[in-house]
Amino acid sequence: MIHLLAVLILILESSMAQEKTAIVFGGNGFMGSETVLSLLTQFDKVIVVNRGNWYYDSNLRIMQRKEVIHIKCDRFKHKNENNLLKCEKFIKLLGSITNIDLVVDFSAYKPKAISDALEVLKGKVHLYIYISSDSVYEVCEGYNTASGLSKETDSVRPKDMEKRRMLARRDSYGDDKLSGEEVLEASNVPYLILRLPDVIGPRDTTHRWWTYQLWMQLFTEFPLAIPIPRSNQILKTSYVYSKDVASTILNVTDLSRTKSEILNQSYNIGFEEGFTLKELLYELESEMGQNIDYDLNADENAFTLFPSVSRGMVDITKAKDMIGFVPTKWKQALREVVQFYSGAALKYPSELKDVVDNLLEHVVPDSKRDEFSKLVNRIASNGVESQSQESPAHHNEL
């Protein structure tokens, strides 16, 4: 009997030791919720740490899973303190965990957030994946002039401190993201950095894509030309699909166990294709079967939502070669995204309000606001679908 009990204890301890745990900072919206769902296919426990603001239906998609532990914590509440240390539930939970197989950090917009996380996790982490941005190249010396694409090795800050400060002022987001990368590089934690261009996909909390799509959906009844400044008709930039971000995270987590050479590296990921804003909107218009007017003589300060960078496209060769990155085909992603937002007005009234407010503030003339609001209310009540793919798109350029 004693022997049997000892065996059972060993089996239980072995089972507990093999339990795979991931921590996701963020995980409550766009890419994060997609990633959590992906991780749940291979992890026994996923700890989601965020401020408790849930977007779209992410709460329903995630919180009903028994493997998910949600910790409400604002890691940015007090500027000069490690706010994670004040999250008692989180600290207590960490005390009961010996090993953390994976950390995915979506919400570290400041380098201190990473320093704070590393302090709290105290060497328990096997792999830290930091979600960075192609905006880091905006604060660096330059890009590969032969290809015109930004490579990972181009993330070199200027030696001239005045130029460095000037670039940081111009793009504080890119500066902070690169500083976050530098914190990880200086640590002894195995890490992997994903540099993302502008992200498209379902449940986008920036509402950029949905704003353009709703603008086009309403165009027949509310014909407001979409401005495309001259620079946005020339500059090609990269985009990445949110689902590809989630699948890449899961893939590199698996690879890192057998291919240590992929660790402590940064990777650009994105679609094979790049687009100017003009090309991107034409693609959207064509998929919707719409007939849209564009103002191609728009002022450079006109209202635009893409792109967020000025350095052009990123080179994804390294990700393809080293971590086997295979992006979703553009046409497939485009179709899926358009289909999602075509039916979103009925399902997500709170997010719809944000999109409408964006259009009312930047696009709709004051004299037309009431008329526009009534049209949107009708849509919110009845729904609106894109025109059939059979209707060819025509570009009317002003």
Kindly report the spatial arrangement of strands forming the biggest sheet.
3-2-1-4-5-6-10
The 3D shape can be described as: globular
Helix content: 40-55%
Q: Count of DSSP E strands?
A: 13
Reported for the largest beta sheet, the result is: 7 strands, parallel
| SSE ordering | HEHEHEHEHEHHEEHEEHEEHEHHHHHE
**What class, by secondary structure content?**
alpha/beta
Strand fraction equals: 5-15%
Cα radius of gyration in angstroms: 23 Å
Uncertain runs are: 4-16, 385-392
Gap between N and C termini: 87 Å
Explain what you see.
With 398 residues, the chain is α/β, with parallel strands linked by helices. The chain contains 15 helices and 13 strands. It has helices at residues 2-17, 30-39, 58-63, 88-95, 111-121, 161-170, 172-186, 208-217, 242-255, 277-288, 317-322, 330-342, 344-347, 349-362, 369-382, and strands at residues 21-25, 45-50, 68-72, 102-105, 128-133, 191-196, 198-200, 226-227, 237-241, 265-268, 274-275, 291-295, 394-397. Strands 3-2-1-4-5-6-10 form a seven-stranded parallel sheet, with helices on both faces. The chain has a three-stranded mixed sheet with strand order 7-9-11. The protein starts with a helix and ends with a strand. The model is unreliable at 4-16 and 385-392 (pLDDT under 50).
